[in-house]
Amino acid sequence: MSSVETMREIYLDNSATTRCFPEVAERMSRIYLEDYGNPSSMHHKGVESEKYVREARRTLAGILKAGERDIVFTSCGTEADNMAILGGAEAACRRGKHLITTQIEHPAVLEAMRHLEKQGYEVTYLPVDGLGLVDPEAVAAAVREDTILVSVMHTNNEIGAVQPVAEIGRRIKEKNPKTLFHVDAVQGFGKAQILPKRMKIDLLSASGHKIHAPKGIGLLYIAPGVRVLPLLYGGGQQGGLRSGTENVAGIAGMALAARMLYKDLEGDNARLAAMRDHLRSGLTEIENVTVNGPAGQENAAPETAAPHILSVTVPGVRAEVLLHALEDRGIYVSSGSACSSNHPHPSDTLQAIGASRDALDSTVRLSLSVMNTEEEMEEAVQAFRDLVPQLRRFTRH
Ligand code: PLP
Q1: pLDDT, average across residues 24-37
Q2: Which residue out of 210, 342, 348 has the highest number of ligand 1 atoms within 8 Å of its CB and is therefore the one to mutate?
Q3: In which region does residue 104 sit, left (phi positive, over 0), alpha (psi from -120 to 50) or beta (all else)?
Q4: Which of 63, 134, 212, 332 lies 20 to 30 Å from 96, alpha-carbon distance?
Q5: Quick count: other Cβ atoms within 10 Å of Cβ 237?
Q6: How many other CB atoms are found less than 10 A from the CB of residue 295?
Q7: pTM
Q8: Residue 123 pLDDT > 50, yes or no?
Q9: Exposed/middle/buried for 68, CB within 10 Å: 0-12, 13-18, 19+?
Q10: pLDDT at 113 over 70
Q11: Ligand 1 centroid to residue 279 C-alpha, Å
């Protein structure tokens, strides 16, 4: 394979994963090669390593305006989601066996819920509106005396709908203060200011590889006083909540990436949204091309659209064909959700917002990062302008 330097590429699949910030890779390389001690070791190398973990905890807790002890490092967002839902339910099962989520969650949430259903729990799957937004009123109405946990994602990974998380948190607690509120913020962390305490969030998941840190690291925020049982038992690391030697390089890398992203969040988001809007206006000029979710609606409240995700339906062209035609030009996009592509199955999110059968097969996702440029957007639009008519002719026989 050619190196990044020799191959010109326009990477628009940042919701699947991101390229590491060079600074992150450098710090991690130092940890792998020099400061490689086990944080549990009592000698100098262990102490050095422990310092990285402590500093990362401080950085991430600072961003969330949380306590350092509220953060548990996991191996990924999926593990954080599973720990919140399975560990949260197990700890609270004497209070009730009812959980609430939405129809557009990532499989890391939906499959954990289905697992609980098999164990005798009851799960309510709330619908969303045509833009992919959850109604806080409907969440409140579904909360009962025996509801132990509600899980609503911050930013949808397929269409970029940003849920009214603070309002949902408030409504849940008004109805039942004991009900735990979990937020899957894997796509929102690094793009939005998320303050668990203020938003009444008890449990919050994030993942390193979506924010220019490596794969294999994630975190779960657990509010003080909230009980979650561990998924892993062993040496008792991280207060016994998550046994297993800490991924020190990943932890330090995730904290550094987060610090870099939160340095000028507003400026970065404005630039991302401008690039997204450039793509949207260019692509929707092509005959019959439409954009799904709040980013496609002129009158949707701006805060409901993630600055970096654009879901585009191109009738008359199969998403995979378009994906590969773009790839031939060095442009990387995704068809549906890359994270669930191990099980090719029509997108739950697109179905939940009422997309037609044909639209399900003709939708691609373009997802941006701070590493993208305006010039890349123009090139991508031009590639769509060239390819879509050609591919449509081909598809129509
Ligand atoms: N939740 C959401 C919303 C996601 O988009 C993803 C991955 O795409 C995950 C959870 C899973 O995260 P990870 O890949 O770190 O397991």
Answers
A1: 98
A2: 210
A3: alpha
A4: 134
A5: 19
A6: 27
A7: 0.96
A8: yes
A9: middle
A10: yes
A11: 24
Residue 210 contacts residue 368 (beta carbons within 8 Å): no
Cα–Cα distance measured from residue 210 to residue 201, given in angstroms and rounded to the nearest whole number: 21
Residue 340, pLDDT > 80, answer no
Residue 239 in this model has a pLDDT that exceeds 90: yes
Give residue 344's pLDDT. Answer: 63
User: Does 397 score more than 50 pLDDT?
Assistant: no
Instruction: Say if ligand 1 is within 6 A of residue 353 CB.
Output: no
Is residue 339 among the annotated active site residues? yes
Mean per-residue pLDDT, 79-83: 98
Instruction: Delineate the domains of the chain, giving CATH numbers in brackets.
Output: 3-20+264-396 (3.90.1150.10), 22-262 (3.40.640.10)
Protein residue with least CA distance to atom 6, ligand 1? 186
Beta carbons of 120 and 113 less than 8 angstroms apart: no
**338 CA closest ligand 1 atom index:** 8
Tokens 């991690």 sit at which residue?
28
Using CA atoms, how far apart are residues 213 and 208, in angstroms rounded to an integer? 5
